[in-house]
Amino acid sequence: MSQDTSVSQTAERLRAQLRRYNYQYYVLDEPTVPDAEYDRLFQQLKSLETDNPELITDDSPTQRVGDVPLAAFGQVSHEMPMLSLDNAFDADDMRAFNKRLKDRLELLDSELEYACEPKLDGIAVSLLYEDGKLVRGATRGDGSTGENITQNVRTINSIPLRLLGEGYPRRLEVRGEIYMPKAGFEKLNELALSRGDKPFVNPRNAAAGSLRQLDSRITASRPLEMCCYSVGIVEGDLADTHTGVLQQLSGWGFKINPEMRAVNGVAGCMEYFADLSERREALPYDIDGIVFKVNELRTQQRLGFVSRAPRWAIAHKFPAQEEITEVKAIEFQVGRTGAITPVARLEPVFVGGVTVSNATLHNMDEVERLGVRAGDSVIIRRAGDVIPQIVSVVSERRPEGTKPVVMPDTCPVCDSAVMRLEDEAVARCTGGLSCAAQRKEALKHYISRKAMDIDGLGEKLIDGLVERELVHSPADLYHLKHLQLSKMERMGDKSAVNVLNSIDASKQTELPRFIYALGIREVGEATARTLAMHFGSLEAVQAADEEMLQQTPDVGPVVARYILSFFRQPHNLEVIQAIRDAGVSWSNIEVSEQTVPLDGQTWVLTGTLEQLTRNEAKQRLQNLGAKVAGSVSKKTSYVVAGAAAGSKLEKAESLGIDVLDEAQLIERLTELEG
Ligand code: IVH
To answer: What is the pTM of this model?
Structure first.
């Protein structure tokens, strides 16, 4: 054997090996060798080819990196036209489709077998193989003429440059969809943003943009995949069902959709549709419907075509997740803490299965990022249960005379000054409880379970009471009359009595609850409790200056300033007085060393407690001055380990921290609470 033959044999052996690994990695998603091994073989082949350039073949795995840019794409005329599909939008359309076929085939009792596949949202392409070698890739174009994108498709790893195995037709045209998986899309956009480039609107646009590059080196850098769903020209024999053909393609190295199934009749189709609709969001790629095809190729042939679509297939579309609509206005909404949020009022549009007429724009940074203005046409997206989002502005549709959005200087509801702190994305109304919009939200917070816990007074009822101006501040709740309540929507005599009773019952409360109920910014349940324990009375909290507030555990300069500014507003003081005048009361807490025996200690609860609830244990520890944390560190004073305690217990033991069981905890609590 000559030296040359053995080198060329080595090269061919390496190629075959690399093709197989490539297929396992990119098509089956089941690599069998570590990346390093693949890289080593790849480098070996590469250096063989560099030393012996005459050995380089077109279908070598080294030839996927992209080629010199083209001046323009050539044209390809499809020997067999690339058709489109008829659409179905509901079960009725599906039943009508099935009936049309059965009537035409004169099927009385038996059901048709259908192949079901997701309808991928990408770009349709055709790949031509001659003697197992990829010779041409083309876009669908108008169905009869497309663009020659051979250089670009060669860079996509899930497309074989040479077919695997044997028995493939001498000429074989494989058709399918090139798409960008969601994960690759996210990464690509992150990269674009980090470079200051404009991100892609959705994976479909990203795939189309990546494929239509004259410079195939750009295509090579994009995370594209191809999934096959049919064949065109075939010179040779293939299986006699659609699913059978796709299985053959899979054996020759193509990616086919793992969700493909054959089902019986329209009932089977609808079941498949329901199942995939539910799993749609979790799939790693975008789909816009399900394609159903008569599985038997002979039956497909008998059914034939109508104009540009086969009679034997249909696409059952999902409700579109993206639509275009017009922004009628951009308004500003005020939340509980005064956060002013720009909201787009939209020409109502049916998207993602619901009619959408508003979309939050979050903050002014987002408004600027999108560059959106009233009057613009925008792409709105609603996927799954996610709140509707404006994805982008269709800039070429911008009418004359639109103006950039400006954050108002004063609150649109109460006219108080609007402030935007330097380190915050959000602008806020400074009106506090005197702002009508904040009042509704503040009232909902006031009555909530961890605050004053007035059950029976729901959010809807609060909305109604505020809208009818029966309630302006929490103090007004205590003056509601039976007659006023029973006249509210969905209220009767009995529910009115219940509401009045629960308002009455809530009057006897606790200081921490009351402080929390005030809804001071950043003063959550835990901070309210520490304030109560530290100062002992509301008067003491009110009288504290910034420095004194900061001596409270957990209160830093920012929170201290929020507390000060809350108690500096005369309106807030008036409301507190009115609430107390209405009979709301609590016991003050004696502040002395003994009341906070666990001051400065950090406790961690882990595992399942049996006698106490987790919250109860937490509350009692906090009442004694302890901080209750979620994770164990060197600073942890004690860990309480309930049943089935896991890693936190292990960590405590490794750090040498004292561990108590539930019984010991209860004993300690009872002793200290004395
Ligand atoms: S079959 C004659 N199967 O949908 C059958 N098409 O509206 C032709 N598509 O241009 C297509 N996933 O880009 C088929 N599993 C699938 C598909 C699929 C996506 C696209 C394809 C085609 C369009 C037809």
So the answer is: 0.63
